[in-house]
Specification:
By secondary structure, the chain is of the alpha+beta class. Helices cover 32% and strands 22% of the residues. It is built from 16 helices and 23 strands. It has a seven-stranded mixed sheet. Strands 3-2-1-5-14-13 form a six-stranded mixed sheet, with helices on both faces. Strands 4-7 form a two-stranded antiparallel sheet. Strand 1 and strand 2 form a beta hairpin. Residues 263-452 form the Carbohydrate kinase FGGY C-terminal domain. Keywords: ATP-binding, Glycerol metabolism, Kinase, Nucleotide-binding, Transferase.
């Protein structure tokens, strides 16, 4: 009797396998970090082969930690860092170049060139996205333009493209020996190549970017049996039955299944998603319109999304680049050593600014420095940057939806930081609610796979599984809240126009 569902969570800094029981509780987890490759300023890469090797190891590790066997698992779901693009040879299975990560800004010239005909909103009506370095399509064009022989191979039909979900699925189901070249609408909607209405590839967009259609994976629903994992190795023979991009998976795992329900995930970056139901809401305030999920043959459900590039990775930067803290959790006691930010504001525009600004010309800045400011104030400014950026996105979401958020569900690694959670509630002026299972990304992928295989009977099972762990209520007076938020907005303007067009 299969008692559990497994999820492969291929993230920006690590890959893990998590195993869940029917109540949605974590039974076992194994995790491996992979290298962050920075060839030059603004470039971020991962080694796809390292990621795949780690994926195999964590699947075996998660089973071993609880002495489980394959027959204990009903199905496998996949969730992944979105917009990170891999191009590989369909015959050899070898990538032609490293994966270009979602944070990477090398495609700025390609984006500018595409914008000459139609401006930055050239594709927005059809894809829900502005032209930006964030998305996958221009990354594929960069690889084809810059890797020797890649374009010729692509035009001969020898190369495949996918976000990391597709790379993992293809390898897991056989690789060069019959691997499945599929994706789901949540991932496809992050390429600038998918029509939001038809959930099919927009051939004209691919042609604009010089991407042969033969490279693109088949778009399937987010919850269906795609095929079985190859017999060799951990999880062999099990059905892969769910694929969701990480932020949509977290929305699903948070049981935000009705229009008007929203969540904020605190990870490498922050991502706020608001379920808008089967209605596609186009943003007028710098947000993205995206597919939230598509369950089997049901109509797609859409979302408004506010994407923030740098939040948790700013804490890592403080640790790894400056050495101010030895481990990420150390930031909370350091920030608590002072009463406030001492007048310092940190705008982490390392990869430009995402929502609601979409300014690729911006770069990071610390402003308001005086001799009074110490490392405690800097630590506090780092945490506050996450909350301020989230407030900006939620303000835009309130404007687009016409309905003010009354509470915010939160998840991800940073929600263990109680100082941050209290400040988030203070700067929003609404309660912030953390669930019992805070790592909802993997849970959402597990739900998608379990629904497709009958392990869970329907969305009511998901709603019933959700449970609150803790709530933070706002305690800051409104006048002070708005004063420090105005100062933050002023700080943001200091990052604009730093990178000059060549």
């Amino acid at each position: 009797m299969s008692q559990y569902v497994a999820a492969i969570d291929q993230g920006t800094t690590s890959t893990r396998c998590m195993i869940f029981d029917h109540s949605g509780r974590v039974v076992s987890v194994d995790q491996r970090e992979h290298k962050q490759i920075f060839p030059q300023a603004g470039w971020v890469e991962h080694d796809p082969e390292e990621v795949w090797q780690n994926t195999r190891e964590v699947c075996a590790g998660a089973l071993a930690k609880r002495d489980l066997v394959t027959s204990d698992i009903a199905a496998v779901g996949i969730t992944n860092q979105r917009e990170t693009a891999v191009v590989w040879d369909r015959t050899t299975g070898k990538p032609v170049y490293n994966a270009i990560v979602w944070q990477d800004t090398r495609t700025d010239r390609i984006v500018d060139e595409l914008a000459k005909n139609g401006g930055p909103d050239r594709y927005r009506a059809r894809t829900g996205l502005p032209l930006a370095t964030y998305f996958s399509g221009p990354k594929v064009k960069w690889i084809l333009d810059n890797v020797d022989g890649a374009r010729e191979k692509a035009e001969a039909g020898d190369l495949l493209f996918g976000n990391m979900d597709t790379w993992v699925l293809w390898n897991a189901t056989g690789g060069p020996n019959g691997g499945l070249h599929y994706t789901d609408p949540t991932n496809a909607s992050r390429t600038m190549l998918m029509d939001l209405d038809t959930l099919s590839w927009a051939e004209e967009h691919a042609a604009d970017m010089g991407i042969p259609m033969s490279m693109l994976p088949e778009i399937r629903s987010s919850s269906e049996v795609y095929g079985n994992i190859r017999e060799r190795g951990a999880l062999g023979g099990l059905p892969v039955a769910g694929i969701l991009g990480d932020q949509q998976a977290a929305t699903f795992g948070q049981a935000c299944l009705s229009p008007g329900e929203a969540k904020n995930t605190y990870g490498t970056g922050n991502f706020v998603l608001l379920n808008t139901g089967t209605e596609k809401v186009m943003s007028e305030n710098g947000l993205l319109t995206t597919v939230c999920y598509k369950i089997g043959d049901n109509d797609p459900v859409y979302a408004l999304e506010g994407s923030i590039a740098v939040t948790g990775s700013l804490v890592q930067w403080l640790r790894d680049n400056l050495g101010i803290i030895a481990a990420a959790p150390d930031i909370e006691p350091l920030a608590r050593s002072v009463d406030d930010n001492g007048g310092a504001y940190f705008v982490p525009a390392f990869s430009g600014l995402f929502a609601p600004y979409w300014r690729s010309d911006a770069r990071g800045a610390i402003v308001g420095l005086t001799r009074f400011v110490n490392k405690g104030h800097i630590a506090r400014a780092v945490l506050e940057a996450t909350a301020f950026q989230s407030r900006e996105v939620i303000d835009a979401m309130n404007a687009d939806s016409g309905v003010d958020l009354t509470s915010l569900k939160v998840d991800g690694g940073m929600v263990a930081n109680e100082l941050l959670m209290q400040f988030q509630a203070d700067i929003l002026g609404v309660p912030v609610i953390r669930p019992v299972v805070a790592e909802t990304t993997a849970l959402g992928a597990a739900y998608a796979a379990g629904l497709a295989t009958g392990f869970w009977s329907g969305e009511d099972d998901i709603r019933n599984n959700w449970a609150q762990d803790k709530q933070w209520d706002p305690s800051m007076d409104e006048a002070h809240r708005e004063k420090i938020f105005r100062t933050w907005k002023k700080a943001v303007t200091k990052t604009f126009d730093w990178v000059e067009a060549e």
